Amino acid sequence: MADKIKNAKIVFVVGGPGSGKGTQCEKIVAKYGYTHLSSGDLLRAEVASGSERGKQLQAIMQKGELVPLDTVLDMIKDAMIAKADVSKGYLIDGYPREVKQGEEFEKKIGAPALLLYIDAKAETMVQRLVKRGETSGRADDNEETIKKRLDLYYKATEPVIAYYEKRGIVRKINSELPVDEVFAIVEKAIDELK
Ligand SMILES: Nc1ncnc2c1ncn2[C@@H]1O[C@H](COP(=O)(O)OP(=O)(O)O)[C@@H](O)[C@H]1O
Ligand SMILES: Nc1ncnc2c1ncn2[C@H]1C[C@H](O)[C@@H](COP(=O)(O)OP(=O)(O)O)O1
Ligand SMILES: [Mg+2]
């Protein structure tokens, strides 16, 4: 089954919480027809299902911690296989969050062609998340959890960027700019892939 996605174009979208990953992915989907898979969205769907596993995940996410690697990787893999016949490429948003996640993904699924590094200052990310928290209903968009998510980002996820930089597939995107200007930079990176 996993053979079906072996040759698919895979783009990792990495950046801190509130950096604008989801916002840019939406625009990529609209222009390029890629399949957008957000690990956070997949996990929140499991939580919303009310399952026993969802309850355990919710407790972890509320604390701003990472859920077990196998759980999130299985979810992504299943979602990729489900779209294999129609997908022009995959945006993997919010994964890998640590180097080990990247290694396991490549073992079980395949190698990324590009890593979009959505970069914003900590201060900007906090401001955006506090604002998003006014309407998102997300249990983790509160000041206490935001701080933990940021700390974990710098500790666990930033090394992911260095890891893929060595392979020359990282494109750093300045996400401090207005959404459409950020997207103009994103477009260039995606167009290079063709
Ligand atoms: N370039 C930008 N300028 C201003 N606000 C932005 C920008 N990109 C995203 N936002 C806002 O910041 C918040 C977080 O964006 P989101 O795409 O959900 O980030 P992430 O998926 O990385 O957590 C959202 O409320 C979004 O509207
Ligand atoms: N790849 C992954 N590994 C482990 N936990 C993950 C994960 N992706 C998401 N999660 C869990 C922990 C995160 O704090 C939470 C929310 O993730 P998210 O929606 O990707 O956040 P954001 O878009 O604000 O960066 O879900
Ligand atoms: Mg997001």
TrEMBL record:
Main location: cytoplasm
Compartments it resides in: Cytoplasm
CDD domains membership: ADK (cd01428)
GO cellular component, as recorded: cytoplasm
Catalytic activity: a ribonucleoside 5'-phosphate + ATP = a ribonucleoside 5'-diphosphate + ADP; dATP + AMP = dADP + ADP; dAMP + dATP = 2 dADP; GTP + UDP = UTP + GDP
Region spans: LID: 131-141
Gene3D superfamilies: P-loop containing nucleotide triphosphate hydrolases
Pfam families: ADK (PF00406)
Single GO MF descriptor: AMP kinase activity
Binding positions (AMP): 39, 44, 65-67, 94-97, 101, 138, 149
Binding site for ATP: 18-23, 132, 177
Stretches for region NMPbind: 38-67
EC number: 2.7.4.3, 2.7.4.6
Record keywords: ATP-binding, Cytoplasm, Kinase, Nucleotide-binding, Transferase
Enzyme superclass (EC): transferase
GO biological process: ADP biosynthetic process; AMP metabolic process; ATP metabolic process; nucleoside triphosphate biosynthetic process
Summary of subunit composition and partner proteins: Monomer.
Function: Catalyzes the reversible transfer of the terminal phosphate group between ATP and AMP. Also displays broad nucleoside diphosphate kinase activity. Plays an important role in cellular energy homeostasis and in adenine nucleotide metabolism. Also catalyzes at a very low rate the synthesis of thiamine triphosphate (ThTP) from thiamine diphosphate (ThDP) and ADP.
Domain notes: Consists of three domains, a large central CORE domain and two small peripheral domains, NMPbind and LID, which undergo movements during catalysis. The LID domain closes over the site of phosphoryl transfer upon ATP binding. Assembling and dissambling the active center during each catalytic cycle provides an effective means to prevent ATP hydrolysis.
Family: Belongs to the adenylate kinase family. AK1 subfamily.
Xref: HAMAP family: Adenylate_kinase_Adk (MF_00235), Adenylate_kinase_AK1 (MF_03171)
Protein name from the UniProt record: Adenylate kinase isoenzyme 1
